[in-house]
């Protein structure tokens, strides 16, 4: 049984770290506090794999600085030469942006004192970056004594984040430009498993992919459609006639094999 009050500080740290790594920002202090957060998490990792991944992120940062983070982030999420990695719950739920999941998150947000900074934050409310930031802020409020947000954080995780986050993490890990973000995916995955224990919720079953049939753009006039129909019917009639002829010959051979 998890002592929820005892681990809320660590949960806030993880969500804050993920927010720094996943929210797009032009602020020069974008990664402020990341190094210190890594030092703390490395001392008490969630498991062995995520512990190694945290060390890899720290080494990457020490060698290349925050500029290396920025370049890789842009290659994965903002690369105009190829389709950027999708980040919204709506896309993973419905196949397009700004769907019902975004509306659900906006409804959750309206029940809090937290507000989206529309001047500096351009991504949708159901994007991964916004969701982990939202969770971080909710936990901070809970730690400060506002226990009424307990239910809301539970709903945000179980109804929004839990439903699509595995697919996002998989796509991030497998992205051909991911290096440090591959390590981040390992950390994120371990943390999501911890959150499922915290909220006592199961990993959702994989969703069946729906492949939309491509509609033909070819225009066919009524006359052309009628001509094609007559040709099909003629071919079908010819096929039936040949089949009947073959059956008749077979019957004759059976009756008088000497012919």
Tell me what you see in this structure:
This protein has about 260 residues and is mostly helical. The chain folds into two domains: about 5-200, TorD-like (Orthogonal Bundle), CATH 1.10.3480; about 215-259. It has nine helices and no strands. The chain has helices spanning about 5-20, 35-45, 50-75, 90-95, 100-110, 130-145, 150-175, 180-200, 220-255. Helix 1 crosses helix 2, helix 3 packs across helix 8 and helix 7 (about 150-175) packs antiparallel against helix 8. The longest helix has about 35 residues, at about 220-255. The N and C termini lie far apart (about 90 Å). The model is unreliable at about 210-215 and about 250-259 (pLDDT under 50).
Entry summary:
With 259 residues, the chain is an all-alpha fold. The chain has nine helices and no strands. The protein starts with a helix and ends with a helix.
Provide the structure class: mainly alpha
**Helix count from the secondary structure assignment:** 9
Q: What proportion of the residues form beta strands (DSSP E)?
A: under 5%
The largest sheet is:
none
Low-confidence stretches: 210-216, 249-259
Question: How are helices and strands ordered from N to C?
Answer: HHHHHHHHH
Q: Terminal Cα separation, in Å? A: 90 Å
> What share of the residues lie within helices?
55-70%
General shape: elongated
Task: Look up the CATH topology of the largest domain.
Answer: TorD-like
CATH superfamily of the largest domain: TorD-like
Which CATH architecture of the largest domain is right? Orthogonal Bundle
For the record, the count of structural domains works out to: 2
């Amino acid at each position: 049984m998890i002592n929820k009050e005892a681990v809320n500080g660590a949960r806030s740290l993880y969500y804050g770290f993920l927010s720094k790594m996943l929210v797009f920002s032009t602020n020069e202090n974008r990664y402020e506090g990341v190094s210190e957060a890594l030092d703390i998490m490395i001392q008490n990792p969630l498991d062995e794999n995520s512990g190694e991944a945290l060390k890899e992120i720290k080494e990457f940062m020490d060698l290349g600085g925050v500029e290396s983070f920025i370049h890789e982030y842009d290659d994965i999420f903002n690369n105009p030469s190829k389709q950027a990695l999708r980040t919204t719950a709506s896309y993973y739920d419905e196949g397009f942006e700004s769907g019902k999941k975004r509306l659900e998150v906006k409804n959750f947000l309206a029940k809090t004192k937290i507000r989206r900074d529309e001047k500096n934050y351009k991504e949708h409310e159901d994007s991964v970056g916004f969701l982990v930031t939202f969770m971080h802020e909710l936990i901070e409020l809970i730690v400060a004594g506002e226990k009424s947000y307990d239910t809301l954080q539970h709903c945000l995780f179980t109804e929004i984040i839990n439903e699509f986050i595995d697919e996002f993490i998989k796509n991030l890990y497998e992205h051909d430009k991911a290096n440090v973000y591959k390590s981040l995916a390992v950390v994120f995955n371990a943390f999501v498993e911890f959150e499922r224990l915290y909220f006592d919720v199961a990993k959702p079953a994989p969703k069946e992919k729906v492949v939309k049939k491509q509609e033909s753009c070819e225009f066919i006039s009524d006359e052309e459609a009628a001509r094609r129909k007559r040709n099909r019917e003629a071919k079908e009639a010819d096929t039936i006639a040949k089949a009947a002829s073959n059956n008749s010959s077979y019957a004759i051979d059976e009756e008088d094999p000497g012919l």
